[in-house]
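Entry 14. Structure prediction run on the chain below.
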Amino acid sequence: MTMDESTVFPCIGVELEMPTAHIRTTETHPVGTFFRNLQQIRELRGQKGELLAYHGRDYGLKFEQGLHSIDNGFNNLESSLGPVRQEKDCLNQLHSLINLELKDIFAALEREKAMVINFSEHPDVKINQTFYSSVRAPRSIYEYQTGYRGWNHMAGFDAKAQNSPSTETELGNAVTGLNCLLGLAPAFVALYANSPFEAGKIAGFKENRLTIWPKQMDCSKMAGDKKLHQTPAKPFNNLADYLKWMFGPGTSMWFVSETDSLKNPADMYLIPSDPPLLDFLKSGPCQGKSFFHKDKKIISPDIRHLVDHQFTQYTDCRIRYGLKDNGPELSEFMDVMDNHPDKLEEFLAPFISFCYLEGRAAGANYPDRDLTKLDKSNISSSLVISPSAMQYGLLRNLKQTSMLMEKYRWTDLLGLRNEAVKNALDGEYNGIKVKDLCMDVVETAAQGLELEHQWMLDYPLWVLQTGKTGADRALDRLSRMNGSLRDRIGKLILERRAVPI
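Output returned:
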């Protein structure tokens, strides 16, 4: 283990995204009374929650142990659970939170004749401008992405959904952990591949969900956006290297906001010529122009602008962090970045309030009727917690995980990632099989777990044993059905209704 005693049991959390469908029609379902129904269910247990609404439309519910909201649209629910604090039992605690969350969500959806489906993307959605406008989440950042950066934001509105674990790490281990989770992402992609359909057709990718980023971002007016959804060409040397890749030459900063609401700021100020963020941070005060109102104001670079931009890369893993109120001074930070890049972690460590790694490679999978019938060895009960357990085990076992990484060339891992998106376990690149990488990753993760948590890897072990991911099982079932392709997909959606454990 490379973590010291204070982080042997790191804080953990998870963000679960959930495609919804109508129980009768199987069409994608933008939720209506869902959040009020969920509030009633929770209040019956004595749990008070705060409804979040915009122009009279509910879009979220805030509770003590998490936030229940929507991802990019009302047809894709999102639950952010945790953090669960540093304890030996934190994985079991998170598992209990997940089970209760799903039970309540399924009950609340049933009141409006809707369901969560066991896919990482709704298989049959017709996306047009009218649908997009009616379903899109009320976040002002989307106006900026489409109206200023020129993204094709509409491309992601068939409820592409991920299972995103968060695992605390020391800042000094963050880049090593990031490199490992980026390099080993093909295993997460393949084991949880669950989106073989798009728009009522066979997509040609077993994890079609991950086609979202090139579809949305490759058309951006900012050339650097294309780079920031792709795994980098080489591992990062240190934190400074990561920040220079993300905010250095060839990239364009986003807006500057006066508020703490990063994805729904009341206003956004644009910096002339949209320079790389690091160039902006080195500059003096400049005149920013409001994106919404066109008024102008003087903007002074601040270290918090770095923190505000930390989400603006869309690869398979992010470093997430917060800074304490007492610094550091921006000039000192930039001096270390430029002149002592290998000392940046040491310089920042006293100012860090939290640091965790956000995994983004695993697709959403949920227990359905067929999976629960198999549950002799925790296959369905381990399903949703298993990405968190895998990431937790890899990061607690960081020395062995790093040694596993050294078995592979980085370029081969990049090729395996593309193969995992297209072919899941059946992928192969340069003589290396995706399935073999998956076996190595699960074995290494298991070494980082306590004995009492080993069962949480039963689902990925079962996938490896059978050679069948969620996508494979869906395609196999489709081939045994009668009727038109769209009719068969509709029947499959009904069969794949998620059920509580």
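The two ends are 33 Å apart (CA to CA).
Filed with the rest of this week's runs.
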